[in-house]
Design goal:
This protein has about 450 residues and is α/β, with parallel strands linked by helices. The chain has helices spanning about 15-25, 30-45, 65-70, 80-90, 105-115, 125-135, 170-180, 200-210, 240-260, 270-275, 305-310, 400, 420-425, 430-440, and strands at about 1-5, 5-10, 25-30, 50-55, 75-80, 95-100, 120, 140-145, 165, 185-190, 220-225, 265, 280-290, 295-300, 315-320, 325-335, 340-350, 355-360, 380-385, 390-395. The protein is built from 14 helices and 20 strands. The protein starts with a strand and ends with a helix. The structure holds pyridoxal-5'-phosphate.
Length: about 450
């Protein structure tokens, strides 16, 4: 989103305020051109290796985003059976999908086998069960390399105390199980954390994975996970993708020679592909001057964007309505019933009530972590594609809040608005039938 002729625009000249006029606030907007630019940057950084990029779709699973990324040529990394099903619905071929669950039961893994996707196993107990039940179906092993990496303890997942992966020290046991059950291991995988700045961390991890291949003779791929650091504000250090691609390519080619077979090299970025493509637009409800602070209170909260409160994440905030005004210092806060801070002491062009603010880096782990807390609706989503804004998810409505609730009729006897017979499912349409009645009685 850049300022052109005094107002913010997305790719193809789409004016940000026009999108808000059409679809309202709060609103997530994803610029597809940015996703393509990031995908191309990653793919072009590698040379002479069989690279596969699997999009870690936990970052953002809107089906249109999945289809867009599939059309760029990517495969997909899924962590739940629901993500697998979404990916298949989006058109990914089963063999392009890697299913990497953690702490799920064997039944979910067997369901994924029925869907013919690639299976990644990250604990010994499941490996043993799988080997008994489906020794015919090849699996990948998620290795815990015991590396402390990543920007935040909550997303640092490759260290010795982490619940993820099978310890490198337990690989002899893995091999005994594989041999005893006649399983086939087609890949090794690791993922150490998110927000890794230094390319050397990936290279050190790669060496551990190379060593872990000893004794696995039928490997087809090595998957190095993700964790590429993106920029959240001016001056932020990012992973140097070009340096990483160059160095890993050279080392991977050498390794394949040592191993005696050409393997596929897999990375599975989430944040890198979609973080910077996303913007979250909100309306300023109140500007509140206290004795010490100016608060800008917006029509959203941690229910829609939890990363600042959950990870202390920094999201740049700009005033879309007044892009080039004189700046002042604000605390930008949400409307939730507890401390709900998006940003402290932010220098932003002067904010008036009604102004539209935009949070940057809102593509990854933002809408996906949103909730109905305080019984608020989750926001709509829009994708900028080919110079046009497309609505890709409707804003929720009051019906959505009630949708899966099941009413106990006897609790409703006293209500003079909703009598028990009206609330019975059937001809009156259950709870939503009751809702219709409410609407007729009062204007919502
Ligand atoms: C197994 C695995 N792969 C890939 C990713 C994507 O990481 P990032 O969004 O940092 O690229 C994650 C993130 O949690 C993950 O757990």
């Amino acid at each position: 989103m850049n300022i052109e002729n005094g107002s913010y625009h997305f790719s193809g000249g789409v004016n940000a305020l026009d999108v808000v006029k059409d679809y309202g606030c709060p609103l997530y907007i994803y610029d597809s051109a940015v996703i393509k630019q990031k995908y191309d940057q990653l793919v072009n950084a590698f040379d002479g290796v069989d690279l596969k990029v699997h999009y870690a779709c936990k970052a953002l699973t809107n089906i249109n985003v999945l289809r867009y990324i599939k059309n760029l040529g990517a495969g997909l990394d899924a962590v739940s059976i629901q993500e697998v099903k979404l990916a298949l619905k989006a058109g990914f071929a089963a063999d392009q999908i890697m299913y990497t669950p953690n702490c799920v039961g064997i039944n979910e893994i067997l369901e994924a086998v029925e869907l013919r996707v690639k299976i990644n196993i990250d604990n010994i107990s499941i490996l043993e069960q799988f080997g008994q039940l489906r020794p015919d179906y090849p699996v990948c092993i998620r290795v815990n390399p015991h590396i402390m990496a990543g920007a935040n303890a909550k997303t640092s997942v490759g260290h010795i105390d982490s619940k993820f992966g099978i310890s490198v020290y337990q690989l002899p046991l893995v091999q005994r199980i594989v041999k005893a059950t006649n399983m086939k291991v087609n890949g090794l995988h690791m993922h150490t954390g998110s927000g890794i700045m230094d390319a050397e961390v990936f290279l050190n991890g790669a060496e551990i994975l190379f060593r872990a291949t000893a004794g696995f003779e039928e490997l087809e791929f090595l998957d190095f996970g993700s964790g590429f650091k993106v920029s959240y504000k001016e001056g932020d250090i990012e992973t140097d993708i070009e340096e990483l691609g160059k160095k890993i390519s050279i080392r991977f080619k050498d390794f394949c020679e040592e191993y005696g077979r050409k393997l596929t090299l897999v990375f599975e970025p989430g944040k890198f592909l979609v973080s910077e493509a996303g913007y979250f637009l909100v309306k300023t409800n109140v500007v509140k001057q206290t004795t010490s602070t100016i608060f800008a209170g917006v029509d959203s909260g941690l229910n829609h964007l939890i990363r600042p409160m959950f990870y202390d994440a920094h999201h740049e905030i700009v005033n879309v309505t007044n892009p080039e005004g004189k700046s002042r210092i604000y605390n930008v806060v949400g409307y939730i019933c507890e401390t709900d801070t998006f940003g402290i002491n932010r220098r932003i062009s002067e904010i008036s009530e009604g102004d539209i603010l935009a949070f940057k880096n809102a593509g990854a782990y933002c809408w996906m972590m949103s909730s109905n807390y305080n019984s608020r609706y989750r926001p709509a989503e829009v994708m900028i594609l080919d110079g046009k804004a497309h609505l890709i998810r409707r804003r929720e409505s009051f019906e959505d809040i009630l949708n899966n609730q099941v009413e106990i009729n006897s609790l409703n006897k006293e209500s003079n608005l909703l009598s028990a017979p009206e609330m019975k499912s059937g001809k009156d349409g259950g709870l939503l039938g009751g809702l219709k009645k409410i609407k007729e009685t009062i204007s919502l």
